[in-house]
Amino acid sequence: MAKIYKFLFIFCAILTHHYCYSSITLQNSRRPGSLLLLKNFFPTEDEIEIQQIESNKIFDYIPTKLRHENLEKKILLKLTDPAQPLCSLSESLKIEIASYQNLTNQIIQEILVGSFKGRTYDNLSYFVDKFGPRVSGTQNLEDSIDFMIDKMKQDDLQNVHGEEVLVPHWVRGQESAELILPRRKKLTILGLGFSVGTPTDGIEAEVIVVKNFTELTKRANDAKGKIVVFNEDYIGYGPTVEYRGSGAVEVAKVGGVAALIRSITPYSINSPHTGMMSYEVNVTEIPAACITIEDAQMFERMQARGWKIVINLKMEAKNNPLVTSRNVIAELTGREKPDEVVVVSGHIDSWDVGQGAMDDGGGALISVEALALLRHLNLVPRRTLRAILWTAEEPGLWGVQDYVKKHEHEIENFKAVFESDIGTFRPLGLDFSGTFEAGCIVEEVLKLLKPINATSFRSIPEVGSDIGYFIQKGVPGFSLNNENSQYFNFHHSEGDMMTVENSDELDLCTAVWAVSSYVIADLSVTLPRLTQK
Asked: Which of 36, 288, 434, 453 could hold 476 in an S-S bridge, CB 3.0 to 4.6 Å?
């Protein structure tokens, strides 16, 4: 038993490059330590009860998606030789990385107390106040792209241009919902992206409430001809968002006429949250919308009392033909190896509620401002630094998919890809997806950011959304690790306004982006790649 605990602590250490007892919860009523919960690294896994495990079964306890290249070799090495260091960078490489400390301090100084102080916040607030939400397929999105292209040129960035891509154009139209029985009440809803609309007079039907797909299947006969409300528990965005994505399909399969999904958020003040959903071929397309936590819970209580619930739902939503949009590109051309590229990125589009300040105006702006800051300081990296603002991320990553397809022949030239799309709050460090050896280099680079306490390193198989297409091809990937515990309170809602952003935190995020991307682009070595899958 002790050996298996030792293995799991080592596995945790190899993922994070340090022993992470603080990230592990040990609990059991029979004897402490027999239940292991790796919350940080198994976010969608249940608690794992450790039984007597034979040594040849050890790796059955690692989800396939967490099996990094050479991971098993590293674990076995550590089990057989505990004195073996997890990272073994050469002294010359450590010295080279440490030599960037003065440059790092210069960048930090310029953005915290110099001419760039507050600039990211000012430019982001101007951008989102001017354009508001920037929905895929709309002229407003294209106007915001023109604005950003002009800004990049004013910042004296190089090779500034847009690259065309066809994107979807979903229109919400007018929408409303009203509780008819057991009493009348206006409901606050947001239709889901790609949803079809209702007939002009709406859909008025009795309601059943279910907690999950399993309960829906058991109550399939009850669901026929009904509006189905999902009052699913929020257990994290990843595991819970499947109800938004495929709830309408599952309801249609059992004969339901519409799906109302409890918003995918841990917190609500009667605030619905939108997002993308999808349909399946040969399954009837029915309307789908998100409702508030408060209303979903109320409906469940009403149902438990045996009350008849009737709702009238009206939605004008429709899907228009594809239209042309653009990914936005700007560069600092490398001084020695201009064909080798390190990308920093965020997406420029948003949903049609709020201002898209947090998702993902902040990520887009720190990517632009990082390059503008480096240009201002006349810092030219060895390799090209490229900022990309992806279009049409929200309706399904259309911009990046088109970009990777068109640049497939250049994929070996992409040495690293950064993406910020999970908040730009106080930065803690970087999340990383790549080889163990590359992670050792990244962890050493993060030590440069000690002056702003942003040295945290987490090795995670999947980081970002857009850059996943690069990571699948072996390119090392980065995401901004930040104090974003409140992120999903505002995500895809009217609350995603400039109010949630903080000027000092945006400055710090820009500093992390500028320093880490510059150093990775300038080092004498490139990050070892994963084997392409």
From this structure: 434
359 DSSP 8-state letter? I
Strands (E), 299-426: 310-315, 318-332, 337-347, 383-390, 414-419
Predicted TM-score (pTM) of this structure: 0.87
Three-state DSSP class for 43? coil
Q: Tens of pLDDT along 229-268?
A: 999 999 999 999 999 999 999 999 999 999 999 999 999 9
H or E stretch including 105?
helix 101-112
Our CA dihedral for 50, 51, 54, 57, rounded to 10 degrees, sits at -50
How is residue 157 written in tokens?
Answer: 């960035």
Q: What are phi and psi of 254, to 5 degrees?
A: -105, 10
**Residue 369 among the catalytic residues:** no
Are the C-beta atoms of residues 342 and 520 closer than 8 Å to each other? yes
Beta-carbon neighbour count of residue 29 at 10 Å? Answer: 7
Give the pLDDT of residue 42: 35
Nearest alpha carbon to residue 530 among 414, 424, 445: 414
Please tell me which residue in 69, 393, 394, 505 is annotated as part of the active site: 393
Identify how many contiguous H helices and E strands the chain contains and give both numbers.
Answer: 17, 19
Let me know how long the chain is.
Answer: 533
DSSP lists the bridge partners of residue 418 as 344, 478
